Amino acid sequence: MKDALILTAAAVLAAATAAHAEAGDMPGNALQGRELAVKECSQCHRVSRAALPPGLLRVGPAFGDIADSASITPTSLFVFLHSSHPPMPDIVLSQQESADVIAYIISLKRSHL
Asked: Three-state SS across the chain?
């Protein structure tokens, strides 16, 4: 059991280290990220700050709420997007698509003055 925990921790650390390098290597295009989010993510997430139509149920958190979370960074988003987390389907994004979606989510962050 202890060995399994150590292996899991090592795998998470390796993924986070790789993600840090990958997430910072490619600049994202927030406009393209928004288009991809509307196409691929809007069935389960509110992808903009606009109000939802009445009666529309979302399964996942709103992208604006994700952006406003204190722990969100481009690296943490990259790791999340490339990790399995049911009930979210495993959507395979290219490195550029990931960078674009991350740039879009980060662009939704409200400044807290």
From this structure: CHHHHHHHHHHHHHHHHHHHHHHHHCCCCHHHHHHHHHHHCCCCCCCCCCCCCCCCCCCCCCHHHHHHCCCCCHHHHHHHHCCCCCCCCCCCCCHHHHHHHHHHHHHCCCCCC
Note down pLDDT in tens along the chain; length 113 residues.
545 444 444 444 455 455 444 555 678 999 999 999 999 888 888 898 776 666 666 788 899 999 999 999 999 999 988 888 787 888 889 999 999 999 999 999 987 53
Q: How far apart are CA 74 and CA 80, in angstroms?
A: 10
Distance CA(18)–CA(14), nearest Å, equals 6
Where do the domains of the chain lie? Answer: 2-107
Amino acid, single-letter form, for residue 54: P
Report the distance separating Cα 39 and Cα 16, nearest Å.
Answer: 27
